[in-house]
Amino acid sequence: xxxxxxxxxxxxxxxxxxxxxxxxxxxxxxxxxxxxxxxxxxxxxxxxxxxxxxxxxxxxxxxxxxxxxxxxxxxxxxxxxxxxxxxxxxxxxxxxxxxxxxxxxxxxxxxxxxxxxxxxxxxxxxxxxxxxxxxxxxxxxxxxxxxxxxxxxxxxxxxxxxxxxxxxxxxxxxxxxxxxxxxxxxxxxxxxxxxxxxxxxxxxxxxxxxxxxxxxxxxxxxxxxxxxxxxxxxxxxxxxxxxxxxxxxxxxxxxxxxxxxxxxxxxxxxxxxxxxxxxxxxxxxxxxxxxxxxxxxxxxxxxxxxxxxxxxxxxxxxxxxxxxxxxxxxxxxxxxxxxxxxxxxxxxxxxxxxxxxxxxxxxxxxxxxxxxxxxxxxxxxxxxxxxxxxxxxxxxxxxxxxxxxxxxxxxxxxxxxxxxxx
Length: 422
Prior knowledge:
2 domains
């Protein structure tokens, strides 16, 4: 039986706290934690002195582009990028071509994802073909292995929303929504604000997100749980905070770009800053940071959205929305949140390990305790490194290139195997 001993690391469990401990991994599970563990015969040993040892990071919002846009990313390249970013599991979105909207397609791509460096899980389209016209066969999609339902890239249709919430809840799987009123977005490509005016670009008003958030929250109050994706506005996180205080069954996520950047950082017509929702105002960025600190936000996800260079070279008006994020999620969180004193290491473990595991029903993930899966993310808080121009991902559409960050992965362990080591 394969075993691996992680020695001398600062072990951070989101429930029990942090302590200098050794961790023995055996048979793909955590076998033992103690201050000093003697290596069993034949055991591989990794010295984690000076490193932070987290439960494996789980990214609940990733676009792998397969099928349909393999020039930008594939399942295999996404899994390798995840491992390089300290991410041991990722939930893939269904807005592929064709959309992952049938049991046969979910089964097919689950088979293709087997054995990759990081565990890839699949969400399935909530409506047939992501058309927004009728509900998918949610029961068949669950039986095929889908872990969530969403029409990500499109907002769940108003007329089907309550029924979708109830059906997903009855099946015990989360319903995720991309909150956007497209009638308000119009031709917008950037946040409506000073940057849009300076660059002469059509803006996306804040109500494009807020109106859909309010609609989703009200639906949840009557029908059941819903999870709001990539929140970017002060008003959105404020509405989520109020709904939680009322006891409504709602959760929400944000992404590193919404708490590290704002539209004030957009200086030129560079589409590496083009994403949806767009980068908002500095005040919105500060509000998102506050929502992370006060537990309004439940999890942080990358919304990894790779695109070919030739497409992103078309500028804001012509390029597709989206940036990559698998390889920068960890250092952005460590640098902007933990080392900046905004949250603790335990809170980070909640945001990127425990809460994503709970959302997706991954009962043996998200903690560092005996019996849990041997998924570990080892980060180096001391090492400063600039974000490189080339990535393990097939794409490089990142606004963070050149930014100095700390907290880069030193090693990633998935199912007890070292899948990345710097």
